[in-house]
Amino acid sequence: MLIAKYPFLKDLEGNGYHTWHMSLRRKFKWERAPLVDNSEVRGSKEKFGHTKSKQLVETARTSQRKVSKAPSVLGEDPSSIEAHVNVLNSQYQKMQPDFRIVRDRMQQTFAWRQKEIANGMTVEDTVKKYPFLRTPTGLCDELERIHPATGNLCQRFNEGFKCIVPKVLQLAQRKCPLFQFYLETKEALTEDLPDIDFRAALIFLPYIFKENIDHFITLGETDLDSLYPTIQFTDRDWKMAFARRAPNILKVDHIEVFRNSGIDEGIISAFCTYFVFNFAYPRHLNTLMFLQRYIAKIVVDGDQPLPITVTRQINLLY
Question: How far apart are CA 292 and CA 271, in angstroms?
Answer without folding.
Answer: 8
